[in-house]
Write a structure and sequence with these properties.
alpha+beta; 3 domains; 4-stranded antiparallel beta sheet; flat
C-alpha cells in the first residue's frame, strides 16, 4: 500500500521566512526528505520581493551548496513557486526557468529577480546533473561554497547597484551593472544587423560595456572589439592598427587560435599600410596551424607554392594540403559537413592539374584521373554542405569545380559500360582505412559466374547513433556518393574464395591487401583484432555503376 503524503500547513509568516531563507525546508517539514511526496497548504500567498531574495542569498553564503539546494532551492521549486507568486513575474513553471532567456539588462526589481533566478536554475541543473553522472562521487557539493558554485556575491552586488541607482533615479545609461550582465548584453547583440538596429542609447551602452570589460581582460569584450575594428561597424569603425594589439591579446592571453589566423591575413594582405609583411604573415599562419585552422594551412601552402618569404617548395605545399585533406575529409564524414573539405579536395585536384613534374613522382601517374577523383569529391561535398545552408562563396566554388571537371573529363573519359574492372584495391582501401576505428561487416554472396561482395560500416562508438558515411568517388563512372557501404563483384574465373566465408556476415575492423611479385593475383585479408576472419584471392575487382 502506498504511504499517504505528509500534510504540512505553512503560515504566512513561515512562508515569508522561507522566502528569505531565515528558515529551511528541514525546519518547516520536520526533516522530511525533499523528494518525498507532501501536501503543502499555505495560509496565504506571499509575493516574494527583491529584498527577500537579497536576504536569502546572504543567508545562503553560510551554507554548503548541497544544503542550499536541498533545503531551499529544490523545495522552493517543488512546493512554493506559485505560493511566492514567482510564476507571475517569471516562467509559468519552475521547470522552465533553466531554459528561459533572462532579461540581459534588468531595469525593474522583477527583471533583476528573473535574471538571478535563471542563473541559479542553470547552475543548479548543471551541478545536480554532474553530481548524478558521477554516481555521487563528485565532491563539488562539499568542497565548495555556495558562492563558489553560484557566484552569489555578484548577484548581491547587482542588487545593491540596482537599489542605489534606483534611489538616485539614474538613467539606464548611467546605471551600474556587474560584468555578467554586461557580457550578456554584448553576447545577445553580437551581430552586425542587430547592432545596426540598436537605439542610440543601446549603442552607447554597448560601447561602454565593451570598453569596461576589455579593460578588465574579459575575453568576450576583447574578441568583440578586435573583430569590430577588423571588419568595421556601427560601434567601432574599421581600424586594423587597433585590431592588431587586441588580436595579440586573444592569442597570447587566451590561446585563441583564430586570432593568429586573422593576424596572418592582416599582414598577408598589407591591411595596415598597404604593404604586405610576409614574414609576419608566415609567423601567424604557422601559429594558427597549431590550432588546426584550415584557412591558415591554405595560406601557408600558397606561400610555399609561390615562394613568399620562404623558398618555393611545391612538395611542402602539397603535403600541407594533403594533411588538411585527410583531416577535413574525416571530420566531414563524421558529420561536420559545414567544414572546408570541398575547398581542400578542390585544391588537391589543382595540384594534379598543373601537370607532370609539378609534384615529385607525378610523372608516373594519371594526373587527370587523380584530379578527377578529387573534383568529384569536392562537388559532392559542396552540394551536401549546401543542403545545410549555403556558405558565402559556395556558388563560385561549385562553378570552379564544374569548369575543372570539364577539363579533366575531356582528358579521361568515363566508361560507358555498367561495370569497371580494376586490379587496384585503392577504393576499397580508402573506404576502410579512412575510418579504421570502426567496425565493419563483409557479406559474400555466390552467383552462377560471380561473387557479390558488400562491405558495410556497422559501428563506430557508443556515443553515435550510426557509423560515419564516406565520400565514395568512382571517377571511371564519373560519380561520387556518400555512403556507409561499398559493393563490388569477383569473377569466378579469376578468384578463389573458401566456402566458409560465403553467405554470412563476418565482422572485421582491419583490412590488408597483399600482392606477390610476379603473381597477377592479389589477396585481400580481413582481420578482427589481429585474427584473420575472411580472405580471398582475385585477379580483378569489378565495380558496378552506382
Amino acid at each position: 500500500m502506498p504511504m499517504n503524503p505528509e500534510e504540512i500547513f505553512i503560515t504566512s509568516e513561515k512562508l515569508e521566512d522561507f522566502a528569505c531563507l531565515r528558515t529551511t525546508w528541514s525546519e518547516l517539514s520536520g526533516n522530511l526528505p525533499v523528494m518525498l511526496d507532501a501536501n503543502i497548504t499555505c495560509e496565504t500567498q506571499y509575493p516574494m520581493t527583491l529584498d527577500d531574495l537579497a536576504e536569502a542569498l546572504e543567508n545562503a553564503s553560510s551554507m554548503q551548496p548541497g544544503q542550499f539546494l536541498l533545503d531551499w532551492w529544490i523545495p522552493l521549486g517543488n512546493y512554493f513557486y506559485e505560493a511566492l507568486c514567482l510564476n507571475e513575474i517569471m516562467t509559468p513553471t519552475f521547470e522552465e526557468l533553466a531554459d528561459a532567456s533572462e532579461p540581459d539588462l534588468p531595469s525593474t526589481p522583477e527583471d533583476l529577480m528573473f535574471w538571478i533566478f535563471v542563473i541559479l536554475a542553470r547552475e543548479a541543473d548543471m551541478i545536480i546533473s554532474d553530481f548524478y553522472k558521477s554516481n555521487g562521487k563528485n565532491k563539488m557539493l562539499v568542497e565548495n561554497t555556495t558562492n563558489d558554485l553560484f557566484n552569489t556575491d555578484a548577484m548581491l552586488t547587482q542588487i545593491q547597484y540596482f537599489t542605489e541607482d534606483e534611489e538616485e533615479d539614474l538613467p539606464i545609461t548611467e546605471r551600474r551593472f556587474v560584468p555578467e550582465i554586461k557580457e550578456s548584453f554584448i553576447v545577445h547583440r553580437d551581430n552586425q544587423l542587430v547592432i545596426s538596429d540598436l537605439t542610440k542609447e543601446n549603442k552607447l551602452l554597448f560601447r561602454r560595456f565593451a570598453d569596461e570589460l576589455a579593460e578588465n581582460n574579459n575575453f568576450v569584450a576583447i574578441k568583440f572589439k578586435a573583430y569590430a575594428y577588423f571588419s568595421g561597424g556601427p560601434i567601432y569603425g574599421q581600424n586594423y592598427a587597433k585590431a592588431v594589439p587586441l588580436l595579440n591579446r586573444l592569442l597570447v592571453e587566451f590561446n585563441f587560435g583564430y586570432a593568429a589566423n586573422t593576424l596572418g591575413y592582416i599582414y598577408y594582405d598589407g591591411k595596415i599600410d598597404g604593404n604586405p609583411d610576409y614574414e609576419k604573415a608566415f609567423f601567424y599562419f604557422s601559429a594558427a596551424t597549431l590550432f588546426n585552422i584550415a584557412e591558415s594551412k591554405f595560406k601557408l601552402a600558397d606561400m610555399y607554392a609561390r615562394g613568399l618569404y620562404v623558398s618555393r617548395d611545391t612538395d611542402m605545399a602539397y603535403n600541407l594540403i594533403n594533411d588538411l585533406y585527410n583531416d577535413e575529409r574525416f571530420n566531414f564524414e563524421e558529420g561536420n559537413t559545414g567544414n572546408y573539405f570541398p575547398e581542400t579536395a578542390y585544391r588537391m585536384a589543382r595540384f594534379f592539374m598543373k601537370g607532370a613534374g609539378y609534384l615529385p613522382g607525378s610523372e608516373d601517374i594519371n594526373l587527370f584521373g587523380v584530379a578527377y577523383k578529387y573534383l568529384l569529391e569536392a562537388r559532392c561535398a559542396v552540394l551536401l554542405r549546401s543542403e545545410q545552408g549555403r556558405r558565402p562563396g559556395d556558388e563560385a566554388l561549385l562553378s570552379d569545380i564544374e569548369h575543372a571537371i570539364e577539363i579533366c573529363s575531356a582528358n579521361i573519359r568515363p566508361v560507358k559500360e555498367d561495370t569497371y574492372v580494376t586490379q587496384a584495391p585503392n577504393l576499397l582501401t580508402e573506404f576502410i582505412r579512412s575510418h579504421n576505428n570502426c567496425l565493419y561487416k563483409i557479406h559474400i554472396r555466390e552467383f552462377k559466374k560471380t561473387y557479390k561482395v558488400t562491405i558495410t560500416r556497422v559501428f563506430e562508438s557508443l556515443d553515435k547513433e550510426g557509423p560515419a558515411r564516406s565520400i565514395v568517388s568512382q571517377p571511371w563512372f564519373g560519380t561520387c556518393t556518400f555512403s556507409d557501404s561499398i559493393t563490388f563483384k569477383l569473377s569466378k574465373d579469376s578468384c578463389f574464395i573458401a566456402d566458409e566465408f560465403l553467405k554470412r556476415d563476418i565482422k572485421f575492423n582491419a583490412f590488408n591487401p597483399e600482392t606477390t611479385p610476379g603473381d597477377d593475383m592479389m589477396e585481400l585479408v580481413f582481420l578482427y583484432y589481429d585474427e584473420i576472419v575472411a580472405a580471398f584471392s582475385t585477379k580483378d575487382l569489378i565495380f558496378m555503376r552506382p
